[in-house]
Amino acid sequence: MFTGIVAAVGKINSVTPLAGGADAGVRLDVDAGGLPMADVGLGDSIALNGACMTVVEKTATGFTVDVSRESLNKTVGLDTTTEVNLEKALTLAERLGGHLVSGHVDGLGVVRKFEPVGESYELVIEAPRDLAKYLAYKGSVVVNGVSLTVNRVEDSATGCAFSINLIPHTIQVTTLKHLKAGAKVNLEIDLIARYVERMLSLKS
């Protein structure tokens, strides 16, 4: 489990295809940036842009993970050398500064607007139609591993546009500063909403 509070911005230094042909995944060598690695061991979980990955090797400057083809098909930003938001798995001794996050990407959104408004930025993302029912005013959503609060929701026939206000601190300490209209982002809906939908869908 994670909280959606980014601990550091790292960088994917290299992407190496794994053996197995077109259906195989890739191995990522990740520079951990400012993420403390002293307590990280092999098999531990680290979220990269909101996707939970398993550490298979520690390096002098970071760590290595293997990403399956299924994960590559369901996410964005894990197949190229780029900056990534990093967060180590939550421990019971830590504050839950964001909200409960599983690290499982539910779908890809598309940035429709990213513009300054006063001292902050307005981020508008169009989510797939099947995720619309999980997005609510003042509810929580994860965008590229960052726990955020939804300020507005507008449904349409093809999807659901939701608006987020990004304060300067969030812009400064995450990769969201690089977003542009048309960019794809990893989305994870609220864990509680997922279970509520499941309970309501069952007939007694």
Automatic annotation (TrEMBL):
EC number: 2.5.1.9
Tree of life domain: Bacteria
CDD domains: Riboflavin_synthase_like
GO terms, molecular function: riboflavin synthase activity
GO BP, one annotated term: riboflavin biosynthetic process
Species of origin: Pseudoduganella guangdongensis
Annotated protein name in UniProt: Riboflavin synthase
Residue stretches making up the Lumazine-binding domain: 1-99, 100-200
Role this protein plays: Catalyzes the dismutation of two molecules of 6,7-dimethyl-8-ribityllumazine, resulting in the formation of riboflavin and 5-amino-6-(D-ribitylamino)uracil.
SUPFAM superfamilies: Riboflavin synthase domain-like (SSF63380)
Stretches forming Lumazine-binding repeats: 1-99, 100-200
Matching PANTHER family: RIBOFLAVIN SYNTHASE (PTHR21098:SF12), RIBOFLAVIN SYNTHASE ALPHA CHAIN (PTHR21098)
Keywords: Repeat, Riboflavin biosynthesis, Transferase
Reactions mediated catalytically: 2 6,7-dimethyl-8-(1-D-ribityl)lumazine + H(+) = 5-amino-6-(D-ribitylamino)uracil + riboflavin
Pathway noted in the entry: Cofactor biosynthesis; riboflavin biosynthesis; riboflavin from 2-hydroxy-3-oxobutyl phosphate and 5-amino-6-(D-ribitylamino)uracil: step 2/2
